[in-house]
Amino acid sequence: MTIREQRERLERETLSQFATQSAESRGRNITTAKCNYRTDFQKDRDRITHSKAFRRLMHKTQVFISPEGDHYRTRLTHTLEVAQIARTIARALKLNEDLTEAIALGHDLGHTPFGHTGEDALDHLIPNGFRHNEQSARVVEFLENEGAGLNLTAEVVDGILNHRTECSPATPEGRVVQVSDKIAYMNHDVDDAIRAKLLQPSDLPTYVYKLGLTPSRRIDFLTRNFIDNSHDKHDVGLSTDVADIMCKLKVFLRENVYANQLHQKERNKISKMLHLLFEYYMSHAGQMPEEFQSRMKEDAAQTVADYIAGMTDRFAMKRFGEIFLPAAWEV
Questions:
Q1: Quick check: is 324 in a domain?
Q2: Is residue 319 part of a domain?
Q3: How much is the average pLDDT of 105-109?
Q4: Exposure winner among 1, 9, 141, 308, fewest CB in 10 A?
């Protein structure tokens, strides 16, 4: 019996009846040989962490533009926080921790530079709109490996595609990541907004303090609430009253942080920059890598969006400077 088979047997013996068994995965688009040491979900996790898209997350904005300070979250640190919360929940509920981790690590691979500002800009530029969850699935299914994709299992792709609030993941592990994403970003966005002086602690609504006095205590409270409310259930999630508080907090952040005038000023600059880059590459396809040039006849707007979405913040600014700003004279 291989180590993988031992692991699969251990899953059958120890995981919840609602957990997704790696041996019963719906499989991959392209069937490949089984690994003797890792389950299919472990292989997916490794493929994601070794991908170029995952490495680029370290230089992509979460909410606050990363070059402005070393202590603000980036898209990579957000992803790691989501994975940590999701693994804690999955382990406590005896769900498949490997599947949970793979979904968490891959859920934001398609995010644009400059966070949701970049997403909003591209959403107005391509006919069918741009949504980062769909782009994340597109990255793992098509864009990575020069167009070959990562060939992940159906369960991991489903969790990545359906991690947004309005979606319905097919597995409880996907649902764990969906809520862990909200737990992570709502709390660290509050923390970063206070660090950026967009908020004072006294500005927070009183209902926030029902979750805890500090970000770490709020994350602990929400994690425990999810676990306590989800034992022996297929439909896992926060309790209704706590979920209502999270909805109110999301509205508060939208109105007081994401739409803040100082923050909006920078958002307008970024939006304009990405619009100009998009227009430039639509008419100068030869300036993109060859793998993108070859797809321009299929869908030019989507291809340019793919290229820009894959950029890091600093690469987008570098290319903008090279294209639109005059170079210094050399004597």
A1: no
A2: no
A3: 98
A4: 1
Q: Is 21 part of a structural domain of the chain?
A: no
CB-side exposure of 207: number of CA atoms within 13 Å? Answer: 12
Note the helical H segments in the chain: 3-14, 40-49, 52-56, 75-92, 97-106, 115-123, 132-138, 144-147, 154-161, 172-195, 215-228, 240-253, 261-283, 290-293, 300-309, 313-324
Question: Which domain does 161 fall in, by range?
Answer: 44-314
Could you give the number of structural domains in the chain?
1
pLDDT in tens, 268-305: 999 999 999 999 999 999 999 999 999 999 999 999 99
Alpha-carbon distance of 252 to 245, in angstroms, equals 10
Neighbours of 133 (CB within 10 A): 19
Q: Which domain CATH number covers 286?
A: 1.10.3210.10
- Among residues 45, 39, 19, which one has the least CA distance to residue 104? 45
Reduce the DSSP state of residue 89 to 3 states and report it: helix
Give the CA dihedral 243, 244, 248, 251, nearest 10 degrees. Answer: 70
Q: Please state, as a whole number, how many other Cβ atoms lie within 10 Å of the Cβ of residue 129.
A: 12
In a domain, 141, yes or no: yes
Q: Provide the residue type at 182 as one letter.
A: K
